[in-house]
């Protein structure tokens, strides 16, 4: 990409694109973006045909101002965001902008559909900038209809290495990359760690920890952190993973945080009076995976993630707390065909890619109905367990509801 430095260009938001380093980046208007400006920027981002056009249409100064306004909104809402259904919950997106747009197309656009994203918005994929800008625009435009939790990739130490920094550098050049990347991460530092739906569905990116004792503790989680301290509950919420091989906790093979067993899930749910824990953080083949007698659900929304052949999924929670899923196949498949450029074999490579795509989609179709049956069985177990609790006099907010898998 050609870096368009040391000149100005007209942008869709009515300003000018500045490529003059940190000083010009910080010299942005203190006037908040108007509703009309936000709506125009949302439309521009959604319909932008290419990353190059996005750089042209959305100025760095506007992105900077958006980050500042988003930080203010996030700071006011706290470390635990509490909301009511109906809503759609999404797991990792990882810069897969086209797949994000497919989710909005299928599930509805804000504010008509309420959303909660469970973090890992950036890195890995090729359009992290558009992805995070669109989500921050929606957050500022519809603060109580749109929620974005923090993931471990919304930490500077991670997104410096796994794609976000390099993407900003490629788009905006070496004079702008560091201040703009730092500005994004200052906003990430204010993202909430935890979500709570109807007082009974607890949500985070990574996982839980034995130290979790009550909801008020989660309201008091500390912010802002560019990178949460290690060890800390904040870190576990971003990094921890469930394990069927663990009772209690154990060191996490990632080298950060912990693994936790089903017993920890049961104990935390009991202490916090929670019916279901929804987390992201791990790519699972069909976008959904259950743990701890279905008291924990892993949700992953980026289909065909890197070299995986996974389906993406979102969780739909209706006004009566009935849960259902929607599944998404990938928009494109990029098999590992090596790093060499062999233009003479381009035609054969295209055929191989097309063939691989057919094989992968056939495999998904073949397994899809079996997986749906498995999800129904797991939900049946969940219903039976909740009914047992209800018969024993324990409060039960989900047990009389049906769990539907499309």
UniProtKB/TrEMBL annotation:
Organism per entry: Heterodera trifolii
Domain Serine/threonine specific protein phosphatases: 149-154
PROSITE patterns assigned to the protein according to its UniProt record, in alphabetical order: SER_THR_PHOSPHATASE
Gene Ontology MF annotations: metal ion binding; protein serine/threonine phosphatase activity
Catalytic activity: O-phospho-L-threonyl-[protein] + H2O = L-threonyl-[protein] + phosphate; O-phospho-L-seryl-[protein] + H2O = L-seryl-[protein] + phosphate
Pfam families the record matches: Metallophos
The protein's name in its UniProt record: Serine/threonine-protein phosphatase
Cofactor: Mn(2+)
Gene3D superfamilies with a match to the protein in the record: 3.60.21.10
Similarity comment text for this entry: Belongs to the PPP phosphatase family.
Keywords (A to Z) from UniProt: Hydrolase, Manganese, Metal-binding, Protein phosphatase
Region (Disordered) residue spans: 1-29, 385-406
InterPro entries, alphabetized: Calcineurin-like_PHP, Metallo-depent_PP-like, PP1_catalytic_subunit, Ser/Thr-sp_prot-phosphatase
Enzyme Commission code(s) on record: 3.1.3.16
Taxonomic classification: Eukaryota, Metazoa, Ecdysozoa, Nematoda, Chromadorea
Domain of life per record: Eukaryota
């Amino acid at each position: 990409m050609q870096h368009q430095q040391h000149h100005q260009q007209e942008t869709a938001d009515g300003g000018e694109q500045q490529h003059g380093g940190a000083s010009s980046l910080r010299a942005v208007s203190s006037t908040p973006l108007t509703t009309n400006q936000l709506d125009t920027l949302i439309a521009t981002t959604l319909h932008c045909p290419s990353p190059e056009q996005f750089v042209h249409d959305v100025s760095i100064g506007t992105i900077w101002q958006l980050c500042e306004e988003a930080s203010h909104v996030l700071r006011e809402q706290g470390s635990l965001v509490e909301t009511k259904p109906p809503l759609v919950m999404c797991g990792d997106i990882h810069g897969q902008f086209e797949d994000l747009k497919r989710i909005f197309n299928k599930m509805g656009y804000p504010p008509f559909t309420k959303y909660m994203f469970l973090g890992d918005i950036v890195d890995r994929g090729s359009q992290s900038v558009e992805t995070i800008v669109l989500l921050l625009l929606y957050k500022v435009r519809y603060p109580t209809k749109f929620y974005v939790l923090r993931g471990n990739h919304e930490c500077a130490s991670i997104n410096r290495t796994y794609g976000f920094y390099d993407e900003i550098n490629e788009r905006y050049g070496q004079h702008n990359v560091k201040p703009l990347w730092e500005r994004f991460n200052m906003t990430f530092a204010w993202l909430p760690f935890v979500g709570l739906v109807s007082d009974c569905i607890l949500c985070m990116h990574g996982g839980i920890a034995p130290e979790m004792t009550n909801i008020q503790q989660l309201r008091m989680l500390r912010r802002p952190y560019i990178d949460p301290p290690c060890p800390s509950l904040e870190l576990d919420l971003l990094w921890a993973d469930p394990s069927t091989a663990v009772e209690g906790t154990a060191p996490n093979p990632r080298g950060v945080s912990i693994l936790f067993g089903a017993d920890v899930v049961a104990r935390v749910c009991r202490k916090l009076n929670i019916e279901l824990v929804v987390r992201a953080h791990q790519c699972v083949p069909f976008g959904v995976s259950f743990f701890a007698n279905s008291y924990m659900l892993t949700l992953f929304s980026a289909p065909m993630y890197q070299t995986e052949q996974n389906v993406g999924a979102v969780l739909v929670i209706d006004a009566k707390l009935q849960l259902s899923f929607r599944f998404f196949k990938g928009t494109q498949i990029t098999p590992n065909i090596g790093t060499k450029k062999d233009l003479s074999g381009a035609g054969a490579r295209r055929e191989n890619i097309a063939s691989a795509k057919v094989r992968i989609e056939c495999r998904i179709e073949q397994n899809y109905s079996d997986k749906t049956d498995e999800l129904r069985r797991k939900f049946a177990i969940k219903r039976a367990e909740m009914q047992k609790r209800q018969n024993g006099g324990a409060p039960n907010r989900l047990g009389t509801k049906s769990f539907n898998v499309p």
